[in-house]
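Tip: read the tokens left to right.
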């Protein structure tokens, strides 16, 4: 008879259930059942209530986890700071747009138009988002002498355009590509003059 697997700690069990619940929310929203969650996690249905007070408690924890930076910080750290500014910003945009798309799709599945109110009670989310902002700013600041606006303002404009351009309703179903977003922020929409104006752009 094979040895029995070591039981998971309550915290590890919570993490496993959150991991199993997240993809189910995209398909079922808040109507997901504990039976479906238990099947996805490979546990008995009653196991859920040993670490969560209710299904809603588990769903809320899963939504909160979706708003945490996750692997965004690691992916930003993988961007080579030696790349030209435009290439750095293209990588930044790809990472942030993928995050926005995932969150927007989750909100759509939940029938929500914005982040749930309970997220305001989680300081770790605000701290994580602030760390993302710092990492993004650090990727722009080395070229501050080439920018017409302070790096903080460039980051603000870029994030607004990335957010709006990644939201299907705001963008009327025509999402902006990272290339369009970055080139609009860096170069605007005016054609360079025939004399070669703009040839020395980023």
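Filled-in amino acids:
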């Amino acid at each position: 008879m094979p040895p029995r697997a070591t039981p998971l700690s309550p915290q590890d069990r919570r993490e496993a259930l959150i991991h199993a619940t997240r993809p189910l929310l995209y398909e079922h929203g808040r109507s997901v059942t504990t039976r479906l969650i238990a099947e996805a996690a490979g546990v008995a249905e009653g196991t859920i209530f040993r670490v969560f007070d209710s299904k809603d408690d588990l769903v809320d924890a899963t939504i909160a986890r979706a708003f945490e930076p996750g692997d965004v910080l690691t992916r930003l750290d993988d961007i080579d700071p030696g790349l030209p500014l435009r290439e750095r910003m293209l990588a930044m945009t790809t990472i942030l747009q993928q995050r926005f798309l995932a969150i927007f799709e989750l909100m759509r599945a939940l029938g929500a138009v914005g982040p749930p109110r309970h997220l305001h009670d989680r300081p770790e989310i605000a701290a994580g988002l602030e760390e993302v902002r710092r990492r993004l700013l650090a990727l722009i600041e080395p070229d501050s002498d080439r920018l017409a606006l302070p790096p903080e303002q460039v980051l603000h404009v870029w994030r607004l355009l990335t957010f709006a351009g990644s939201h299907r309703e705001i963008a009327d179903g025509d999402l902006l590509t990272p290339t369009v977003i970055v080139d609009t922020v860096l170069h605007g929409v005016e054609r360079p003059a025939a004399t070669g104006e703009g040839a020395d752009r980023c």
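The chain has a mean pLDDT of 90. The radius of gyration is 21 Å.
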